[in-house]
Amino acid sequence: MIYSWHQPAWDQLVATRSSNHLAHALLISGQSGTGKHTFVTTLVNSLLCESPCEDLHACGQCKSCKTHQAGAHPDYQDIILAPDKTQIVVDQIRSLNSFLHKSRSYKAYRVVFISPAETLNINAANSLLKSLEEPVENTVIILLTSQPSSLLATIKSRCQQIHLATPTKKQSLKWLSQQTTKHTPSDLLEMAGGRPIAALSLDESSQFENRQEFANDLSDVLEKNKTIIEVSKKWQSLSKQILLDWQITWVQQLIRQSFSSQSIKPSLRINRTYPINKLWILHDELIKLKAIAHTSLNAQLFLENMLLSWSKL
Description:
The structure is a single chain. This protein has 313 residues and is an alpha/beta fold. The protein is 50% helix and 9% strand. Strands 2-3-4-1-5 form a 5-stranded parallel β-sheet. The chain is globular.
């Protein structure tokens, strides 16, 4: 399946493959929660299929497709972040060497999928370079990332880069309105920062309530009704990425509110206006924190540093 907002990128790949110009390594990037994993899954299925359809979607019926559906395809290997780990390590990449030089079992492509690529540690990234520099025939290495700027320039230069667009608000609301949700599509989309797939997943989780509770706690910190230490202890077990996504959305709301003559309903319960230059500084600091949120930093100290950024307002 390809979401409508990613169709142009799929059409580009179809044209590239049809002209026999598909690169041996693809770096696919896009905002989290917008369907990029679905895009890559569709691409992997297509590459492994022996009889793809006219639009290059997998047939789903050939022996290669059936084997992949069973999770036992000998020409496919994924390298993903291990549970409770923050980095993809060099031993995981070294396992590629023997895999890449085996004879293919089917006539379609051999495929390697690495995700999230930004979690490759420096040794793993350098080891991967060797495979990228010595491409193997009829083999495609796919790297998926939400943070392409975090990757080594040498890795990016050896890949065909494909950026998957974030849908417009109109596209997202139209898609969400076609789904069955407990909460209103507009509220879900606002909570997910405009990311429709993330919005749908939030509808069935406790995060909808968690987000408002964290917004209240952050507001209490700004109003000096709660301490930074108190709030950071309370929320240290929740994903740092999720907390940062919420806050980046809230800062963007406050910035838009400064420029708009229309009333914008803010998520934060605050009773003052902050200087626009300080809001932009806070926005940049939160973006920088998000770039390192996947690393093995002490959770409470990370949250304390995050909340200190707000206190500078």
